[in-house]
Amino acid sequence: MDAVLALENGRVFRGRSVGAAGDAAGEVVFNTSLTGYQEVLTDPSYSGQIVTMTCPEIGNYGVSGEDVESRTPQVAGFIIRSESPMASNWRSEGTLRDYLVRHHIVAIADIDTRALTRVLRTAGVMRGVIATGTIPSHEALVARARAIPSMEGSDLVKDVTCKTAFDWSETDGETDFDEFVSMKPDRKTRLKVAAYDFGMKWNILRRLTAHGCDVRVFPATAPASELLATKPDGVFLSNGPGDPAVLDYAINNTKTLVDSGVPVFGICLGHQILGLALGAKTYKLKFGHRGGNHPVKDLASGKIEITSQNHGFAIDPSSIPDDVQVTHLNLYDGTIEGLKHVSKPVFCVQYHPEAAPGPHDADYLFAQFVDAMDKNDKKA
């Protein structure tokens, strides 16, 4: 089946449908990861976005139920250069095409993704439409793309957060926890973490569990008092989609959490929300950071981490208050990748230390969160 991608700037790409029939609309972005397309598809942070994979062949290792980051694919649409006709992996449970069709994801292949990526890098990410089957005129598709709501000013968190609070029950294996306990001989009980779900990847929950935490997950709009009523050892702020500046309910709840003295750890959107709660401002990046190869410098140690990233907004460095310290910087463009409060047990990073499928350079941040909870408990 024929397919067409039309961008709001008038650029049109012709290709072939490799997913569900129909149309898809959203902000067109690109991801430079070589692996992990199923994790990308199921990451709630991509809600409202059509994702372009820059790796030329996608689908070669099929799909597996073990590799999902949420209950269902979350992307608005999918763009690839070449669809692998085979799934060469003993773990595979089917082909990528069957997976996309089953989950009603519109996808296009056989287009020049290098040319598309250059357009997005030069002009910035933009709104677009994928149409399959009987395709309207290019002019009509471009007009539709221009009518899509902008990512700036959009609250997409309410579309992806959980409906009610729940306890995360999946473990990451006893081996990881046994090793962790051996490094913490004074630990008698597991730590209790209350986590805000702004569109959380499941591997974050797996890593918290592996580091000795029992996690209760709360909807994004739950009052901070509801989380604090569980007497958590720490609070986690998750990743998620959309513009952080419009999430007044999340920002105000986070201010309450910070004032309570409980240790707080934020990742990605959680980093931006925490930054806003501490008094900073955010802005939209030209084309964002999305991939598994972004170098980040830890300013305290001088070490460089290769990180997994997926975000389109960043903290404005000129807006950071005096009681907040920058801890990490992106070596590609110098943008802020980490913050901490100078006197409270509160810190956050813009990137993804849970990094499904990798790299795992930043997993130490979960241990850092555990240390903050331990120290806070001893003070109490």
Distance between the termini: 64 Å
Order of helices and strands: EEEHEEEEHEHEHHEHEHEHEHEHEEEEEH
Query: What is the arithmetic mean of pLDDT?
Result: 93
Number of strands: 19
Strand content: 25-35%
Instruction: Categorize the overall geometry.
Output: globular
Count of DSSP H/I helices: 11
Low-confidence region ranges: 171-187
Gyration radius, in Å: 21 Å
Question: How does this model look, in words?
Answer:
With about 375 residues, the chain is of the alpha/beta class. It has helices at about 35-40, 95-100, 115-125, 140-145, 155-160, 175-185, 200-210, 225-230, 250-260, 270-275, 365-380, and strands spanning about 1-5, 10-15, 25-30, 50-55, 55-60, 75-80, 80-85, 105-110, 125-130, 165, 190-195, 215-220, 235, 265, 280-300, 305-315, 325-330, 335-340, 345-350. Strand 15 and strand 16 (about 305-315) form a beta hairpin. The chain starts with a strand and ends with a helix. The model is unreliable at about 170-185 (pLDDT under 50).
